Amino acid sequence: MSQIEKLIMQPDPAALESAVSVRHISKNYGPVEALRDLSLEFPRGQLTSLLGPSGCGKTTLLKIIAGLLEPTSGEIEVNGRKVTGPGPDRAFVFQDFALMPWANVIRNVGFGLEMRGVPTSEREAIAERYIRQVGLAGFEKSYPHELSGGMRQRVGLARALAVDAEVLLMDEPFSAVDEQTRRKFQEDLLGLVQNENKTFIFVTHSIEEAVYVSDQIAILLPRPSRVHEIIRPSSFRNKGVDNIRRDPEYLDIVDQIWASLRSYVE
Amino acid sequence: MPRRALLLKLLSAAILFGAWEVAGRIPVSYAFPTFIDSMRALLEMFADGTMIAAYAETLKPLAVGIAISAVLGIAIGLWVGLSSVFDWLFSPIFVVMQAAPLAALIPLLVLAYGIGLTSKVLVVCIMAMPVIVLNTSGAVRNTPESLKEMGRSFLASELSIILRIIIPAASPVIFAGLRLGISAGFIGAILAELKITPTGVGDIITFSRSIADYPSMYAAIFSIILLAVLFLNLLEKVETVLFEGNQRGYVSD
Ligand SMILES: Nc1ncnc2c1ncn2[C@@H]1O[C@H](COP(=O)(O)OP(=O)(O)O)[C@@H](O)[C@H]1O
Ligand SMILES: [Mg+2]
């Protein structure tokens, strides 16, 4: 019993079960080679960041995992099943929010459920619950143009949570919101990873953000993109959100990643 | 806010009619009646039934033509916007139709379809349809890619993406096309009555000009413009009810 507990307390990457496996993925846009032979495992119940300079293929990889783009070669498995297109096991949070401007918050949040044929009353009940969870109670009837950027992304997040997919794909979800809102989002995200039993795949170009929120960081390098390094922060994860940013390991990892990336930044 | 908008509309109408009245009194031309004389003529024609009979005639090609143009125009526009083959096939036709000088085509229409309702409906359609088709297809093509991707990632079917995403996203531009098309359709209906056979409101205009009854002539012109304005306002209301959040455009900033 105590041995099992130990194993859970100190996860060994090799022993972790993968929710998503990326195997030998290549993607060409015409002559542009965006990804070449990229392989990566995403442990279940954890948050993995894809970190890299812009243009290195992060969005491309995320959309291939989502089933929105066909890879040129290679395959994706989610829970052991090969991905052939979008599926109920994955939900996407978009960088530009992708909210429907003609629909109010509750209809936007309920969109995924509507497409799954969930009846209206049940759909609205679920949507309301997630609107409350992301802190937008009282804005159910508001339209996107009446909300701030941060609030719009909360709608996008609630929409993705509402369909209760096991894997959450987030494409630079906080890049379009202001710094203070972003920090709040990052804290909330840590809470979500702990409380929801979901696998998060999180694209970012911010080193600090990646180190702050991730259980595992995959550093991608451009032309053509490949996984350069995988980092698993371990010591500061359980010290509380307020202490992470001054933890020595946090600071070391940030420096180490910058050292790897600096030569790729013009 | 809507109160103020209404007030402004009334104010601009008052200024326009005031200017008309003044211009009529100077007068700028012996053939230009005052606003008050024109309104009196309008009321008289309503009272003796002339106007009502005229509209019963004019509204036929107008209503049929606009209905055909709206339904067919939006349908063709969607089709053209969704399929590059249809775009290639149909777009040039509507571009030519929009550019063609209608007055030159009317004799050909009369030759082919006679002087009856068909020709008049066709004139309304030729005026109204191209801008509806072109606006609709353009708007459909410009649907933000990320909204379509959002639809796919949340498992929307092809049909749902068209009905729930593409059409609502395109609706502001489709409605703008409808407004332009319907205005042009009104012009077409009157043009048909002036150029093909004088009937309805076109007949009042032609006849009262021939007997130099200018107040009646202007009353008829005024009435058709008023009808067009009222109809366009109604259309705007429909749009607001259907797509409330769209009023502020897209959310991407
Ligand atoms: N639809 C496309 N057509 C052609 N090239 C593309 C397309 N999408 C992305 N690319 C190219 O692929 C590379 C990776 O893009 P992307 O995945 O968006 O990078 P990131 O999200 O890391 O900024 C870039 O060089 C970009 O120019
Ligand atoms: Mg990107």
Could you explain how this protein is built, in words?
Chain A has 266 residues and is an alpha/beta fold. Chain A is built from nine helices and ten strands. In chain A, helix 5 (120-133) crosses helix 6 and helix 8 crosses helix 9. The longest helix of chain A is centred in the C-terminal third of the chain and has 17 residues, at 179-195. Chain B has one domain (37-240): MetI-like fold, CATH 1.10.3720. Chain B has helices spanning 2-25, 35-47, 50-82, 84-99, 102-113, 117-141, 145-153, 158-195, 200-210, 214-242. In chain B, helix 3 packs antiparallel against helix 8 (158-195) and helix 9 runs antiparallel to helix 10 (214-242). The longest helix of chain B is centred in the last third of the chain and has 38 residues, at 158-195. The A-B interface holds A 63, 66-68, 86-88, 90-92, 94, 96-104, 111-112, 115-116, 143-145, 149, 152, 159, 163 and B 144, 146-147, 149-157, 160, 164-165, 168-169, 171, 243-246, 248-253. The complex binds adenosine-5'-diphosphate and magnesium ion (MG). Residues 58-59, 172 of chain A line the site of magnesium ion. Residues 29, 32, 34, 52, 54-60 of chain A line the site of adenosine-5'-diphosphate.
Architecture per CATH nomenclature, i.e. the level-2 architecture of the largest domain in chain A: 3-Layer(aba) Sandwich
Largest sheet of chain B: none
Strand content of chain A: 15-25%
At CATH level 2, the architecture of chain B is Orthogonal Bundle
Structural class of chain A: alpha/beta
Short descriptors:
heterodimer; A: alpha/beta; Rossmann fold; 2 domains; six-stranded mixed β-sheet; four-stranded antiparallel β-sheet; 9 helices; 10 strands; 35% helix; B: 253 residues; mainly alpha; MetI-like fold; 10 helices; disordered C terminus; binds adenosine-5'-diphosphate
